[in-house]
Please model this.
Amino acid sequence: MRITLMDRSLYFKGLLLLVRKDGLIQEEERDLMMRVGGTFGYEKQFCEDTIKNALVNKYIEDSPPVFSGPEIAKRFIMDGIRLSLSDRLVHEKEWGWIRAVAERNGIDPAWFSNAFETAAKSASETAGKDLEAFSLEWD
Model:
């Protein structure tokens, strides 16, 4: 699936907003964010600086992203769930924020519940290794 420049930016920022929800960016989360940033063509230094400053930058707008279409939103939601589970615990703030992304993008609540159950069952096996972001194409 192809991803636009705007969606790519929203995707990276959205995942960054998600990982800071619990007030701590775990090493697994940091590593995944670096991989996503690299996959999307962002410079290593930009990714490192952005991740490092994510917890202290009070000027970052925290609203859930609205993507160009439901398919990219669903991929983001799946990655958000997987990323949240990478530290083996989904915090209430993370869960609520991912649910808000689904709502803002018009995603069916039944699909969202099923996606969460599916990701939770395989969390110990994948632990964020197979993010949807890694299969997206862009110019």
Summary: The longest helix spans residues 109-126. The two ends are 12 Å apart (CA to CA).
